[in-house]
Design goal:
The chain is an alpha/beta fold. The protein is built from 14 helices and 18 strands. The strands form 4 sheets. The chain has a 7-stranded mixed sheet, with helices on both faces. The N and C termini lie far apart (61 Å). Bound molecules: nicotinamide-adenine-dinucleotide. The site of nicotinamide-adenine-dinucleotide (NAD) has 32 residues, from helix 7 and helix 8. Nicotinamide-adenine-dinucleotide binds next to helix 7 and helix 8.
């Protein structure tokens, strides 16, 4: 029997042991989920499914503090982030609880009869979650999948299983039938791969690295299995000379150092128009050095540690290759700390400019004009997010349309909301999550012609 010792990344001390499931246990969970689907969850009256999802949302709401505390300890998230993340699961469940009664089909004019379409659930959906945002990413998968009438088997990341396990318990407490939402901690190479290869799993929702995403896409091809991929990013924050430079410099750290930079949407490149480049850097410095990097158990903490010693070594590997222009502080101790760090470069081939660091490091580069900014922003294999700071709204829209990326914000550092679509261009992903269409993506559209 194998198990994993969960570590508090702020102190490098053990939190608890978690059993890692075997292939046989995974098969049993998938088969039980299939049984819960046929004649069970799939066939429940839509209003009843809606009611149970709303109950699940209110049970999550009653446990926001407990879930947040688990995430502070397990993932090193700040209290503010962790409370937001637990609340996000509640909000997703509430939002998608409106979907069961609204999965409309269509009636299409045809000669000699009537043509109807139906939205049929797929069956068992496998959700594979990374360690950086364990709660929201789980909810973005399971809430619309359950609302559409599917059952879900969810594998949390090895490093961060605790909140997902608790959410599974809360689902049962709320009255969801057994095996409708199963949480199965385990290794990617065991549980994750079995979700991909098991024929009863009809769709994979994967969020994680682009490298593993490619393997999963290849694995799904074998059974033409449906899948969505939410993968890596190397997104740009573009600051034009006409922008409110104070506001752009004050918010830029939160666009990249939130969750210690372990954020697929991190704007880890800042492009600044040359005429305001020095002014921007002068204003960015106090915003970065003033960040409160503290043990996240302290309510005042704005940035916590990295998730693991390995992740810290990866980030330090990037920093060893460059000169840091300025950096913030860390509290020290045994936790996996790296200070928020700013690097300046004019080398668009540098590793720091091209690769996802997934840590609190941002690279800043000057640009000359709008065309230059768009070309630099698009010169990447990724396309997940990005920001544009300008007082010229027409330019804001023009540049947002020109940047090849799924989630852009103008004069704001984030564009992620559960009621708007989320996903990537290019190697940042495939398909969209969230937004009003998400439940339909967990169905097949069936076409039925009835002759008369
Ligand atoms: P990862 O790819 O190493 O792991 C993600 C999940 O996949 C884990 O649960 C892991 O156990 C599982 N896994 C690993 N190998 C597998 C395999 N062969 N088959 C099936 N499952 C397998 O990613 P990570 O290090 O946990 O997360 C960080 C990455 O996730 C970053 O690249 C980040 O950009 C990306 N990410 C993307 C989004 C998004 O929405 N686009 C959101 C968060 C994180």
């Amino acid at each position: 029997m194998s198990s994993y010792t969960v570590i508090n990344p702020a102190t490098a001390t053990p939190v608890t042991e978690v059993h890692l499931a075997s292939v046989e246990e995974t098969d049993a969970a998938i088969e039980a989920a299939q049984e819960a689907f046929v004649g069970g969850w799939r066939d429940l009256a839509p209003g009843e499914r809606a009611r149970l999802l709303r109950r699940f949302a209110s049970v999550v709401d009653a446990h926001v503090e407990e879930l947040a505390e688990l995430e502070v300890r397990n993932a090193g998230h700040t209290w503010g982030n962790a409370r937001w993340e637990a609340g996000n699961v509640r909000d997703c469940l509430n939002y998608y609880s409106a979907a069961p009664e609204r999965l409309f089909g269509r009636q299409i004019p045809v000669p000699g009869g009537v043509d109807l379409t139906f939205r049929e659930p797929l069956g068992v959906v496998g959700v594979i979650v990374p360690w950086n945002f364990p709660m929201p990413i789980a909810g973005w998968g399971f809430a619309p999948a359950l609302a559409a009438g599917n059952t879900v088997v969810l594998k949390p990341a090895e490093l961060t299983p605790l909140t997902a396990i608790r959410l599974g318990e809360l689902a049962l407490e709320a009255g969801l039938p057994e095996h409708v939402l199963t949480i199965i901690p385990g290794k990617g190479s065991v549980v994750g791969e079995r979700l991909v290869t098991h024929p009863l799993v009809r769709k994979i929702v994967f969020t994680g690295s682009t490298a593993v995403g490619k393997q999963i896409m290849a694995g799904c091809a074998d059974q033409v299995k449906r899948l969505t991929l939410e993968l890596g990013g190397k997104s740009s924050n573009i600051v034009f000379a006409d922008a409110d430079i104070d506001a752009a410099a004050a918010t830029a750290p939160y666009a990249v150092f939130d969750n210690a930079g372990q954020d697929c949407c991190a704007r880890s490149r800042i492009l600044v128009q040359r005429s305001v480049y020095d002014e921007f850097l002068d204003k960015l410095e106090p915003a970065v050095t003033g960040m409160r990097v503290l043990d996240p158990s302290d309510e005042a903490s704005e940035m916590g540690p990295l998730i693991s010693a390995q992740q810290r070594a990866t980030v330090r590997g990037f920093l060893d290759e460059v000169e840091v222009a300025f950096a913030g502080n860390t509290p020290g101790g045994d936790g996996f700390w790296v200070p928020p760090s700013v690097v300046t470069t004019e080398d668009a081939e540098a590793r720091i400019w091209r690769e996802e660091v997934f840590g609190p490091v941002v690279a800043v580069m000057p640009f000359d004009d709008e065309a230059d900014a768009v070309a630099l922003a698009n010169d990447t294999e990724y396309g997940l997010s990005g920001s544009i700071y300008t007082r010229d709204l027409a330019r804001g829209l023009r540049v947002a349309r020109a940047v090849e990326s799924g989630n852009l914000s103008v004069n704001s550092h984030s564009a992620v909301r559960y009621w708007t679509p989320f996903g990537g261009y290019k190697q940042s992903g495939l398909g969209r999550e969230l937004g009003p269409d998400a439940p339909a993506a967990f169905t097949e559209e069936k076409n039925v012609f009835i002759a008369h």
